[in-house]
Amino acid sequence: MFGGVELVTKSDSNYPKSDLEAYRVSIIEEFTKRQLTSAQEATARLNNMLLAS
C-alpha cells in the first residue's frame, strides 16, 4: 500500500501527464525539505517555484 510521497508520486499510465511532471523532482525535494502546513501553502510554493524557473 502506498502513502505519503509514494502515493503522490505514483505513476499511472492511464492518465495524461501533468504539466508539472517536468518539475517532479524539484517539487518532491522542496516539499520533503520543508513540510507543508496547508493546501494554500502548497499552491503558493508551487507558484513561486514555477515563476522562478
User: How many strand units?
Assistant: 0
Low-confidence segments, ≥5 residues, pLDDT <50?
Answer: none
Largest β-sheet summary: none
**Euclidean distance between termini CA atoms:** 34 Å
Shape: globular
Could you estimate the helical fraction of the residues in percent? 40-55%
Radius of gyration computed on alpha carbons: 12 Å
Percent of residues in beta strands:
under 5%
Helices and strands, in order, run as: HHH
Structural class: mainly alpha
What do the pLDDT scores average to?
A: 81
Total helix count? 3
Brief sketch in words of this structure:
The chain has 53 residues and is an all-alpha fold.
Describe it for me?
- There is one protein chain.
- The protein is an all-alpha fold and 53 residues long.
- The chain has a domain at 22-53.
- Helix content is 55%, strand content 0%.
- The protein has three helices and no strands.
- It has helices at 5-9, 24-33, 39-52.
- The longest helix has 14 residues, at 39-52.
- It is globular and about 30 Å long.
- The relative contact order is 0.13.
- The mean pLDDT is 81.
Topology:
Elements (H helix, E strand, L loop, with lengths): L4 H5 L14 H10 L5 H14 L1
Features:
mainly alpha; 53 residues; 3 helices
